[in-house]
Design a protein that fits this description.
Layout: E1 8-10, E2 13-15, E3 19-21, H1 38-48, E4 54-61, H2 84-93, E5 97-103, E6 117-118, E7 131-132, H3 135-154, E8 159-164, H4 169-174, H5 189-207, E9 212-218, H6 224-237, E10 241-245, H7 264-276, E11 282-285, H8 291-299, E12 305-308, H9 310-314, H10 318-324, H11 336-339, H12 348-355
Parallel strand pairs: 3-4, 3-12, 4-5, 5-8, 6-7, 8-9, 9-10, 10-11, 11-12
Antiparallel strand pairs: 1-2
Helix pairs in contact: 1-2, 3-5, 5-6, 6-7, 8-10
The structure holds flavin mononucleotide.
Flavin mononucleotide (FMN) is lined by residues 22-25, 58-59, 101, 163, 166, 216, 245, 285-288, 308-311, 337-338, 341-342.
Amino acid sequence: MTKVSDSITINGHVLKNRMTMAPTVKFDWGGPDGLLSEKHIAHYSERAAHGIALLCVEATAVTPGGKFDECHIGLYDDSQIDRHRYVTEACRNSGVVSLIQLNHTGISTNPKMGPPIGPSAVQTRRGGMSEEMTVQQIHEMQLRFLEAAVRAQKAGYDGVQLHGCHAYLINQFICRNTNLRDDEYGGSDENRARFASEIIRMIRKECGDGFLISVRTAGADPDLESCAAVAREYIKAGCDYLQVSSGITDPDPSLRRNDPLTNVVCDLGVHMHEAIGGLVPVSCVNGIHEPEQVRHLIEDGLVDTVDLGTAMLADPRFPEAVLNGSEFVKCFGCKACQYGPFTKHNCPAQAVRDRQ
Ligand SMILES: Cc1cc2nc3c(=O)[nH]c(=O)nc-3n(C[C@H](O)[C@H](O)[C@H](O)COP(=O)(O)O)c2cc1C
C-alpha cells in the first residue's frame, strides 16, 4: 500500500511525499509591471516550509493581454524573472519541487487587458464575441508560452504547468463548445489537443529532458473519454504529469463516484488516473480539507498525488498535520479567498492561525 509519506519521482524530480500545492492566484498582489511582490515571496516561502512536496505558483500570464487584471503577474518579459528566484530558492531550501503555472485567458480576456481571442468566434461570458485566432496568431501564442517557460527555467523552477482547465485558452481549444475550427486545431481529439501538444514539444526541445512539464487538464469536458484521449496526446508530446480539475462544461453527473470523502471534481482525477493507466502520475483536487481524505485517496490507490488549494491557503501546516497528526486550522469553506481575492477579504482561518 502506498503511504502519503512515500516519495514519488517524476521525470527525475523527487517529490518527498504525495501532497502538492495547487496554483491559487492573488489577482491584486503584483505590480502593473507583472512583477512578483514581496507579499508573494513571503506567501510562497511560508507555504514551502511545512511539508508540501511540490508547490505550483499561481496562473502567470504569458502575454500582457493574458493577465487577469492589471496587477496580476506575468512571465512575458525578462525583467520579471529575477524575483521568482526568491521563491525557487525557498523551495529548494525546503526540498520542494517548484512549478509555475503558465496561462492566457483567451476568450475570457479582461477587456482592460486586451481583446478576447480564442480558437473560434463565440459568445463570451462578458458579452460580445471573441475573435478567432488565425493560424499565425496560434503559432505566435505558442511562442509566448515557450518564452515564458524558458524564463521560468532561468528563474530556477523545476518545471512548468500549462493551465489547461478552468475555461482558459488551452481549455478553450479542448472544449467543443469553444473550439469550432475545422483546420488542424479543431475537430478530432488529436487536433483539439494540438495547440498545447505543440507547446509541450517546443518546451521539451528548448528546456531539455529534465524539465518537468505538467498539464492541469480538464477531467471531463463533458466526457471522460475525449479528455483522456487529449491527455494521451499531451503525454505523447512529452507531458510528465497530469493534474486534473474541471473544464468549461459540467461533467456528466454519472461520473460522481459513491465516495463520501470526495466530490465530483475530485472524482475527475480518480477517473483520469484509471484511464491513463500509469502512463504518467495523475493528481486530483477539490474539497480536500481533512487528513483522512488525503490518506484515503493515496492509500487506496485512487490517484498518485493530491493537490491542495484552499487547505494550503488556510494553513500551510496542513501537510505536516497529514503526516504527523499535528495541529492545523481547517479551511472554513467561506470562499473569501476566491473572488476578493485572498487579500481584500480576510481568510478567517488565517486569522485563527495568527492568534495561535
Ligand atoms: C483564491 C483562489 C485562486 C485560484 N487560482 C487558481 C490558479 O491560479 N490556477 C488554477 O488552475 N486554479 C486556481 N484556483 C483553483 C484551485 O487551484 C483549486 O483547484 C480549487 O481551489 C479547488 O481546490 P481546493 O478545494 O483544494 O481549494 C484558485 C482557487 C482559489 C480559491
